[in-house]
Fold:
Amino acid sequence: MVNQAVVERDVPLSSRSAVKVFAKQDKIGKKEMPSEDLGEQGSTVRTEAYCRFVPTTGPEESCLSVLKRFQADVKLPCVIVCDHANRPLGLLMRDTFYRRLAGRFAADLFYERPALMFAEKSPLITEITTSPRQLIDAALNREAAVFYDSLILTEQGEFKGVMTVQDLMLMSRELQREADQIREKIVRESHAKVLEIDQSVKEVSATSERSLRQTEEMSGLATAGRAELEAVQASFNRVLKMTKSQEEQVAALLGHASSISSIAASIRELADQSGLLAMNASIEAAHAGEHGRGFAVVASEIRKLALQTKMFSDDIGTTLDIVSGLVKQTADASSLTTIEMQHSHDRVNSADHTFQMLVESVRTVEARGRDMFQTAGNAAKQTEIVMQELEQLSSKK
Structure:
């Protein structure tokens, strides 16, 4: 047997920490493990629950006496050799002890000699307060020659009991059962949390879908509104052109009315001159006597005609003044209408620009809403995958 002076190894105790365990060899070569608690407060499995008592013997007790102990109790796995202070000195395993005494001359050679000579001087010794996981890990790291030996449990250095490989397996099974229960609990809690997350994700997905549909509808309305506004803008452009054309026509009409007024004034002057000429002709006809009587009649008719022409000319002038006033009013109203139409046209252009920005903003919101809807859908799929995996873990016993 090769005894190590110091055995150093890393023992993972939990997901939170890992500690180093040192096994030291005392003066007679026993490997003892530290008794510090390794942080398994959450476990209900305790080393002392698997500790079994076996008889002890002193360092001077003979091999024959120990052999009789084993023969008296066929289920006894081992005997512990202790000093006067009940501190373990060595380990006598049944099978190993039998093999040592199985020789032809073993009875003559060894029966009266101390059994300590056949004891394992470097058994695995640990305090009973050692955590089960650390204890199992230390037992699994033993050499093959002593792998199936019992391990010795002490309490403040004094012998307390032993644990066989069977005890270690039972304790390991209980730890595994406890770990499975914890795992199942965690899986159930995780499944419940994932269900809540899945519900939230589905609600977000449904909300995103409704928001996307509303945004699409808003985008359609904004696009239709802008199209209608563009049609109004085109109509305003046509009306503005027609108003400007009417303003020009009224201005031309006002100019023509002024020309007609000038012509009527000229006719009135001609009528006055014709009246003067007819009066002069009448005077000359009177001077001519009988010979000018016919001429006087013509002059009188011309004078009447001149008076009628003047009257018609005055009526035309009056009517033209009225028409000119109305045309001027129409021109002023047309000018004001043109100005107001221009302002309305500017407002429509501004509204069209605003609508264009609104349409672009709505399309941006629509794109983001679609991205959010897709992201929510992907999250829902991932959540379903996680739920399926949790259900598979939960179904594994």
In short: DSSP finds six helices and nine strands in the chain. The helical segments are 63-72, 94-100, 106-110, 132-140, 165-288, 293-395. Residues 1-39 have pLDDT under 50 and may be disordered.
